[in-house]
Design goal:
Blueprint lengths: L1 E2 L10 E4 L4 E4 L17 E6 L6 E5 L12 E2 L8 H11 L7 E4 L1 H5 L9 H5 L5 E2 L9 E2 L7 E5 L2 E2 L4 E2 L4 E2 L6 E7 L13 E7 L8 E6 L3 E10 L2 E10 L5 H4 L7 E12 L8 E14 L8 E17 L3 E17 L8 E17 L5 E18 L5 E22 L2 E12 L8 E13 L2 E11 L2 E3 L13 E3 L8 E12 L4 E18 L11 E19 L2 E16 L2 E3 L7 E11 L3 E10 L3 E2 L2 E10 L10 E9 L5 E2 L3 E14 L2 E10 L7 E4 L6 E3 L4 E9 L1
Parallel strand pairs: 1-6, 10-15
Antiparallel strand pairs: 2-3, 2-4, 4-5, 7-14, 8-9, 10-11, 12-13, 14-15, 16-17, 16-46, 17-18, 18-19, 19-20, 20-21, 21-22, 22-23, 23-24, 24-25, 25-26, 26-27, 27-28, 28-31, 29-30, 31-32, 32-33, 33-34, 34-35, 34-36, 36-37, 37-42, 38-41, 39-40, 42-43, 43-46, 44-45
Length: about 700
C-alpha cells in the first residue's frame, strides 16, 4: 500500500475484507498478505490509513492463484472514520505485539518542540519510558539503563544516537517513514539488548516526481531532496547546526561551541523484468559532533557515527518473504584534555553484520519465521579514572545466532508467537551457546477485550562504562563484556489487556516484572590498572502502565500513567538507579482547527529522582609533601560525608507545553510554521544542587521556539 502522490509505502495501514470480517496490517515496507480466502467469490477489500481517503477494491481469487494488489491511497486531512476504526480492531484483535508502539512522522510533527522535532523525546511521552532531565533525550525503559536500548536505522545499529550533548537524536524526523518501539517481551528475531528495541525505517523517496523540503529552527537548517530514478527512487537528507544561542537555555547560559551535522541517503531499485517482486535498497548515514573551545584550558569533545547497509527484499508466490541484509556501523568518540586536568578518553567500535530472514505464511494464516544473524564487533577503549587508574581495552568477537518462531494466528480470537534464539558463538567469551526462548499470547474473550501476555529470556554482550554519579553523561564508551564476567541476562514477564469502551475510546493496561542477572556495573574502587573495570551485580524492575485514548474528529485526547520500581544489587548493597521514578505520566490533547491550524498541548509530571544526600562535613588535613610534612606545607579543607546511595528524592517534576501549527498551500509550494512554548507556567524544576556551593540548578525555564518548513 502506497501514497498516491509519492508512491511512498504506508506502514501499519489496515486492509480487511468486509464479507469475511478478516484482514491484515501492512508491515514497515507497506506489504500485507491475507491467506485462506475462498476461490471464485466476489469480495470487497477495504483499505484505510490515518489521513487518507478510504478505498474499497472489489476482487476475486482464482483457485490455486496468488492475487497481487497494489493499492494507492489519496491523502486528505481527515481522521479515521467509524468503518476504518472497526477494520483496525478486526485486523489487530489477535495480534501478539504486547509492549509494542507504532509511530509515524505524523505522530511526531505536531507535538510541542524544544529545539526541533525529535523521536527520542516523543518516546518519553509513552508510559514506562523515562528521562532524567530536560537537557537530555537519553531515555530509560522499564527500569533499564540507557545502554540496554537498541536503536536500529534501516536495520543498522546506531551506537551513539545523540547530537549536542544528548539534547536530541541524530535521526532527522524528516527522513522517517515508520517507527516500531518494543518496550519488552519482544520476539525471537530481536536480540542484543535487555530493555527495548527501536526500529526506524526511512522513506524511500518520491517515485512520481522530484521534491525539495527545507526547514529551519533556532539551531539547525535542514534539506531533503527526493525523486524518481529508473525503476526506483532516491532520497538525500542533510542537517547542520548554525547557531547555539538557544542551547544557553538548556545549559544554564554556558556558551558551549557545539557544531554538528548529519547526512543520509537511500536508493531503492525494483525491476519486474529482472526480478519479479524483488526490491534492492542501499542506505548510508553519517553524523559528526564537535565541541572545540578557543580556550585550551577547557577540554574538547568529538564523536561520530558512520553507517552503510544493503537490503534485498523478495516476495515469492508460495507465499514466502525473504530479506537479506549486509551492513557496517562505526562509532568513535574522544575527549581531548588540552591543558586541563581532565583525563583523556577514547572509544572506537566497528560492527559488521550479515543476516537472512525467511517468512512463510500458510493458508490458515499461521506464519513460520526462520533466520540467522552473524555479527563481528571490535572495540577499543582508553580511559583514565579520577584516581589515575588506566583502562586500555582492545577486543574482537563474533556472534553467530539462529532463530525460529511460529505465529499461531488461525483463530480470530487467539494468537500465539512461540520461538527461540540460539547463540552458537558469542561476541564475549562467555556469551556462546546460550538459548533464548520467547513466547507471547493474545486472547479475545469478548469483542471489546483483548488479553495479552509475554515471557522471554534475553542476553546482551555489549555494555557501556557508565558512571551513574555523573549528572550529565558526556562519554559512555562501549565495550565487549570482559572475559571475567558473564554477559548480562534478563527474564521478562509481561501481561496486560486492551479494552474498547467504544469506537472512539480505549484503555490499555500492562504490567511487567524484569529480572536482570550479571549486570555490568562500573568499579568505582579501581585503583590499579590491573583492577577490573566492571563488577557483576543484579537488578530488578517492575511496574504498571495505563493509557486511555480518545479520538473523535477534530479532537484527540490521551492520558497515561506509569508506576515503576527499579533496583540494583551490588554485593550486599541494594540501591535505586539514578533514573528510578516511582510515578510518571502525562495528559495530552490535539485539536484540528479550521484553516489548517492544529493545536497541541501536553502536561507532564513525574515524582522526584533519587540522589545521594550529604549527611555532614569534617575538616580534612591535606599534606602537600608527604616526605617533608614537618615543613608545615599542609592545609585544612572541608570534606563532605555522603549518606547511603540514592536514598534521597528530589521534589516532583511537572511542566506544560503547547504548540500551534499552521499549514499553507500556494500552488506547488507547501509550507508550515510551528510555534511552541515549553514550560508555559515557568515551573522551577530542580536539576541538581552543586555540592560545593549549595547552588540550585534548575531545568528548562519558559522557552518559546519556532520552526519553518517549506516543501516544493
Amino acid at each position: 500500500m502506497t501514497d498516491s502522490t509519492t508512491a511512498e509505502a504506508l506502514p501499519y495501514s489496515n486492509v480487511y475484507i468486509e464479507e469475511l470480517k478478516k484482514g491484515a496490517s501492512t508491515d514497515a515496507n507497506g506489504y500485507f498478505i491475507i491467506n485462506g480466502l475462498p476461490a471464485n467469490c466476489e469480495l470487497s477489500l477495504i483499505c484505510s490509513y490515518v489521513g487518507y481517503a478510504t478505498k474499497i477494491i472489489p476482487f476475486k481469487i482464482l483457485h490455486g492463484k496468488v492475487l497481487q494488489i497494489n493499492i494507492a491511497l489519496i491523502p486528505i486531512n481527515l481522521e479515521l472514520q467509524t468503518i476504518e476504526k472497526i477494520g483496525e480492531r478486526i485486523v489487530g484483535k489477535n495480534s501478539t505485539d504486547i509492549g509494542m508502539q507504532k509511530l509515524t512522522l505524523r505522530n511526531l510533527e505536531f507535538l510541542p518542540k524544544g529545539v526541533e522535532v525529535d523521536i527520542f523525546r516523543t518516546l518519553q511521552y509513552l508510559p514506562g519510558v523515562l528521562s532524567t532531565s530536560d537537557i537530555s533525550s537519553r531515555y530509560y525503559v522499564r527500569g533499564g539503563s540507557s545502554d540496554q536500548n537498541l536503536v536500529l536505522l534501516n536495520g543498522v545499529t546506531v551506537y551513539n544516537p545523540f547530537h549536542a550533548l544528548g539534547l536530541f537524536s541524530v535521526i532527522d524526523p524528516e527522513m522517517i517513514n515508520s517507527v516500531e518501539f518494543f518496550k519488552g517481551g519482544f520476539s525471537a528475531e530481536n536480540f542484543g539488548r535487555l530493555s527495548s528495541i527501536l526500529k526506524v525505517v526511512s522513506k524511500d523517496g518520491n517515485k512520481n516526481s522530484y521534491g525539495l523540503k527545507a526547514s529551519s529552527s533556532y539551531m539547525t537548517g535542514k534539506l531533503l531532496l527526493e525523486g524518481p530514478t529508473p525503476n526506483g527512487s532516491f532520497m538525500l537528507t542533510g542537517r547542520k547546526s548554525y547557531s547555539t544561542q538557544i542551547l544557553k537555555k538548556f545549559l544554564k547560559n554556558d556558551n558551549i561551541p557545539i557544531d554538528f551535522y548529519d547526512l543520509s541517503f537511500k536508493i531503492n531499485y525494483s525491476n519486474l523484468e529482472i526480478l519479479n517482486n524483488g526490491k534492492f535498497v542501499l542506505f548510508g548515514f553519517l553524523s559528526k559532533d564537535n565541541i572545540e573551545f578557543e580556550d585550551d584550558l577547557k577540554e574538547d569533545f568529538s564523536w561520530d557515527n558512520n553507517l552503510i547497509g544493503f537490503n534485498w527484499l523478495q516476495i515469492y508466490d508460495a507465499p514466502v518473504f525473504t530479506e537479506m541484509s549486509i551492513s557496517m556501523s562505526n562509532y568513535s568518540g574522544e575527549i581531548i584534555p588540552n591543558l586541563t586536568t581532565v583525563k583523556p578518553r577514547k572509544n572506537d567500535l566497528n560492527d559488521f553484520s550479515l543476516k537472512m530472514d525467511i517468512s512463510y505464511v500458510q493458508d490458515n494464516r499461521d506464519q513460520l519465521d526462520l533466520g540467522f544473524h552473524f555479527k563481528a564487533i571490535s572495540t577499543k577503549v582508553l580511559t583514565i579514572n579520577p584516581i589515575g587508574a588506566k583502562t586500555d581495552y582492545d577486543k574482537f568477537g563474533g556472534n553467530f545466532s539462529i532463530f525460529a518462531k511460529y505465529k499461531f494466528l488461525r483463530f480470530d480470537n487467539f494468537g500465539a508467537d512461540m520461538g527461540a534464539r540460539l547463540n552458537l558463538s558469542g561476541i564475549s567469551q562467555n556469551g556462546g551457546f546460550f538459548f533464548e526462548p520467547r513466547v507471547s499470547l493474545s486472547y479475545v474473550p469478548i469483542p471489546i477485550l483483548t488479553l495479552k501476555a509475554a515471557w522471554g529470556i534475553y542476553q546482551q554482550e555489549l555494555v557501556t562504562i557508565s558512571d551513574e554519579d555523573e549528572v550529565i553523561t558526556l562519554f559512555e564508551p562501549w565495550m565487549i563484556v570482559p572475559d571475567y564476567l558473564t554477559p548480562p541476562r534478563s527474564i521478562h514477564y509481561v501481561g496486560g489487556f486492551d479494552f474498547f469502551f467504544s469506537e472512539n475510546l480505549s484503555l490499555k493496561f500492562e504490567t511487567y516484572l524484569k529480572k536482570v542477572f550479571n549486570l555490568a556495573i562500573i568499579n568505582k574502587n579501581k585503583v590499579e590498572d590491573s583492577d577490573p573495570d566492571m563488577l557483576s551485580g543484579n537488578g530488578q524492575s517492575s511496574g504498571v502502565e495505563v493509557s486511555v485514548i480518545y479520538s473523535s474528529q477534530p479532537v484527540s485526547l490521551s492520558l497515561s500513567y506509569a508506576l515503576t520500581y527499579a533496583y540494583k544489587m551490588l554485593g550486599n548493597t541494594t540501591y535505586y538507579p539514578k533514573y528510578d521514578t516511582r510515578h510518571s505520566g502525562n495528559l495530552s490533547a490535539e485539536w484540528s482547527l479550521p484553516f489548517d491550524f492544529t493545536f497541541n498541548a501536553i502536561w507532564i509530571f513525574a515524582s522526584g529522582l533519587p540522589f545521594t544526600q550529604i549527611v555532614g562535613y569534617y575538616d580534612k588535613y591535606y599534606i602537600n609533601n608527604l616526605f617533608e610534612p614537618y615543613l608545615n606545607s599542609g592545609f585544612w579543607k572541608p570534606f563532605l560525608l555522603l549518606g547511603d546511595k540514592n536514598l534521597g528524592r528530589l521534589p516532583y517534576y511537572h511542566r506544560l507545553d503547547f504548540s500551534v501549527t499552521k499549514k499553507f498551500h500556494y500552488g506547488f509550494l507547501k509550507a508550515s510554521i510551528d510555534f511552541s512554548i515549553l514550560n508555559v507556567y515557568d515551573r522551577k524544576n530542580i536539576f541538581y544542587f552543586k555540592r560545593d556551593s549549595g547552588e540550585r540548578v534548575n531545568m528548562l525555564p519558559f522557552l518559546p521556539t519556532a520552526t519553518l518548513k517549506v516543501e516544493l
